[in-house]
Amino acid sequence: MITIFSCCVKVVEAKSVLKEMVESAFQPNIYVLISLIQCYGKADQIDNVVTTFDRIIELGITPDERTCGCLLNVMTQTPREELGKLTRCIQITNPKLGSLIEADAMDIVGYCHCTYDLKRVC
Length: 122
What we know:
Elements: H1 2-7, H2 11-23, H3 30-42, H4 46-58, H5 65-75, H6 83-93, H7 95-100, H8 108-118
């Protein structure tokens, strides 16, 4: 349900299902949290993207290639002034790729389109 709501950018509904899930003693997995990151990104809620990413770390879940790809996709939709928040998440997810990304040194939005394919190399 969370993935379906996330794909449709129904933030309130996705958050409601997550809340119900947690209240029922089910911990969200990487797939659920990535879906939420994508949803928040499409809704221009970058602070919620970062909060959800931090939750992944707090739950002891190792961010993987899908997490990195999702964050890069969100970066392509993010205003330049908010990119620094996401750069930190990329650096945690993939330090090699994170070292390539410097929000002040390049046009990140265009760069992310190219980097999305490069993430597999790193």
